[in-house]
Amino acid sequence: MTDYVLPPPPIASVAIAGSAERFAVRRIFCVGRNYAAHARELGNDERDPPFFFTKPADAVIDSGTEIPYPPLTANLHHEIELVVAIGKAGFRIPRGDALAHVWGYGVGIDLTRRDLQDQAKKAARPWDWSKAFDQSAPCGPLVPAAKTGHPEKGRIWLAVNGAAKQDGDLAELIWPIADIVAICSEAVELQPGDLIFTGTPAGVGAVQAGEKITGGVDGIGAIEVAIGQPRA
């Protein structure tokens, strides 16, 4: 048995719908600008090839959590996303085999400190401080692909205090799920426990302390989180 100088951290995990079991999270990959309308609203070309950024595994939190408004920002944005849960390892996965590596799907929110991201873009610096902060990856319960199939279309939406903010369809993905998995595996060997946030539709915007975010993907599930007051 291995001894550690400090206690190992808890294993990050996501709930599984209808089960007491949980899905242990290894890494979180996120796809940028994967809906054409969202790419345009940020002033980018929707024809660009997909690119990825990461969040730490322990950024993931369950639906129903209250998240303190994060530090260092005055412009916290919501981004609703379909989440892909990887269940089978693979490196340089052919597109035709990619869906066989998917364990299931969920609904996630990529919380973003937009002002820090804008500053990083202007300075040509990494996005880590804008994307990879504490509790920045809320994720609803996962559903096995054996139950849902592999979605190619379906409404994806988000509301703040009941007011609709984002409303799109998975059919609008520039790079569908199989492409995303295959392309990501060109750079890293995907492993069981990896999550891929697949991009957000248009309508991203700011959320304030005291507000409630709800969202969902048809046929997959729903998510809700509250934004609390900043930590003292």
From N to C, what is the helix and strand string?
A: EEEHEEEEEEEHHEEHEEHEEEE
CATH class: Alpha Beta
Radius of gyration from the alpha-carbon trace, in angstroms? 17 Å
Helical segment count: 5
Using the coordinates shown, work out and report the CATH topology: Fumarylacetoacetate hydrolase, domain 2
Strand order, biggest sheet?
A: 4-3-15-8-9-12
Distance between the termini: 40 Å
What coarse outline follows from CA principal-axis ratios? globular
Main sheet specs:
6 strands, mixed
Please tell me the total number of domains: 1
Percentage of residues in DSSP E strands: 25-35%
Total number of β-strand segments?
A: 18
Average pLDDT, all residues: 95
Structural class: alpha+beta
Provide the low-confidence segments as ranges.
Answer: none
CATH homology group: Fumarylacetoacetase-like, C-terminal domain
What is the architecture at the second tier of CATH? Alpha-Beta Complex
**Helix-residue proportion:** 10-25%
Protein name: FAA hydrolase family protein
InterPro entries: Fumarylacetoacetase-like_C, Fumarylacetoacetase_C_sf
Domain Fumarylacetoacetase-like C-terminal: 28-225
Keywords: Hydrolase, Metal-binding
